[in-house]
Amino acid sequence: MKKNVLLGGFMALSLYVFAAMPVYAQSKFFSVMPDLPVADGFVERTDSILMFDKPEGRLLDFSAEGHTLLACQRGLPFYTQTLPYLGWRMDKTGFVREGERLEIRLEQVNAALCVLHLSVRPE
Asked: pTM (2 decimals)?
């Protein structure tokens, strides 16, 4: 009987903890690069993906749209803060990891629309 009470308490506590987790912890990732998160407020543009695999490495061009001023303001800082935790090292022109270079550019289309352009090339 004591085991059932402990097990029930543990299950109730686990359910409470998982239910209380913030929604933003469930990140979206780019389809062409599944270990790279899409910044909050952005949506991947799957119609703009360009991908080549070469013996020297892969070439990727892809993008995401932000539809609010806040998303546009937070896009680049998100990657500057997040990518080092994913193994990317920042240098003068972008990020480097395992022989690849990732460059990110923000295009402000209008006050509430911006596009993040991302490209991966061999280093």
From this structure: 0.76
